Amino acid sequence: MSPAAARAAAFASARRSARQALASSRRASAAARPASSASSPVARATAEDALERIRVEYAPLPAVVDPEAAMRADAPLLYPALGTNVVWHDTLTYGDVDGALARADGVLRERFTIQRYASTPLETFGAIAEYDAGTDAFEFWTNDQRPGLTISILAASLGVPQSRIRLHCPDIGGAFGNKRRPAYLLVCALLARAAAWTGGIANQNRGTLGGNIVNASPAADSLPALLAYEAELVLVSVRGERRVPYKDFHTGYKKTKLAPDELIRTVCLARRFSGYVAYARKVGARSAQAISKVCIAALGRRTGGGVEDVRIALGSVAPVPLRLAETERLVTGKPIDPFLLALARKTAIAEIQPIDDIRSTSRYRATVVGNLIAEFLEKLRADEYHP
Ligand SMILES: Cc1cc2nc3c(=O)[nH]c(=O)nc-3n(C[C@H](O)[C@H](O)[C@H](O)COP(=O)(O)OP(=O)(O)OC[C@H]3O[C@@H](n4cnc5c(N)ncnc54)[C@H](O)[C@@H]3O)c2cc1C
Description:
The chain has two domains: about 1-90, no CATH class; about 130-380, Enolase-like, domain 1, CATH 3.30.390.50. The chain is an alpha+beta fold. It has a four-stranded antiparallel sheet, with helices on both faces. Strands 1-2-3 form a three-stranded mixed sheet. A three-stranded antiparallel sheet has the order 5-4-8, with no helix packed on it. It is built from twelve helices and twelve strands. The structure holds flavin-adenine dinucleotide.
């Protein structure tokens, strides 16, 4: 192709992309995207020359800048796919308001408007959780700024009554910005619960998460939670450091990606699980000082009609801790009904490779896996918590 022809081809391709981008941007309101990308197999400089000649014409859309106008039925929609501009509407009523007003000596009627604000805390956020297997209770230490609501979110997400949650909020300094992170507390809670199942008190006082990972037992209790939260490991050696997604770390029975001179320095967990239902269980001969016959950690988020971003991870059912990709795919977006529960059980059992050993039989493990999947999905369906 001659340079002139290449330039013309690049220009035509870029213009086509720009036209497509413009067509979709007509409905895109404020969310304008980069207008084009030239994809012809031509030199970069040629494509950049072509790009400079693109002129994008934006058709102005009706603007909606006032919250009350935005709530009217005929208001232009910011995100048409949502069908409304209202993200959240609630009425919070406490006590006998009408009675109190009727009995009051005087009543002041006023309308209050609060300015728009976005809060960014100056201070760091911290959380420590401890789980007591004897009472099935969780104790948290945190600088969470909204403990009353946080307790109800934690109780609903962990499936325990609020009386089983103890939240210590020590002096948190100034309230510069929002320190409200139930999702972090849930991550702590899942790991604390898994840690409470690991060995006995002596192991728990000395054992570490790094040791549990590198020990590489397929029955290790903390590993399903790492899979569900898509943890990343930071490995360090004299050669420097590298990051490995935890899901790739165990390559086979008792095999890992760790080089002989490497250590796990950090276990990183993503920070985006607010509003998720978290579920973890260990099934063993007893709840501690017994290796798991099956252990599970699962997460999921409810949507209007079904569930999304479901993550189900199991231990002791394969040579390595396992995520049930097929079962997750099956349940995503669907309403949880008896038919789906039956199908999810069947799919989960088909995904695992349990064995007969001194602790259990493959048949028992498969049955338990089916039951745990059903229990998790029931919990997801019953959960009333909305972020
Ligand atoms: C009686 C008993 C009961 C147990 N019960 C359970 C149980 O119920 N559930 C369960 O999951 N586990 C159980 N375990 C296994 C064990 O307690 C856990 O795996 C524990 O987390 C190990 O941690 P550790 O720090 O003691 O590791 P160690 O035993 O000291 O180390 C294990 C391996 O990991 C390596 N290692 C440790 N830390 C790092 C690091 N940061 N980077 C690289 N390599 C590292 C060590 O060199 C070693 O090869 C039990 C063990 C015992 C002895």
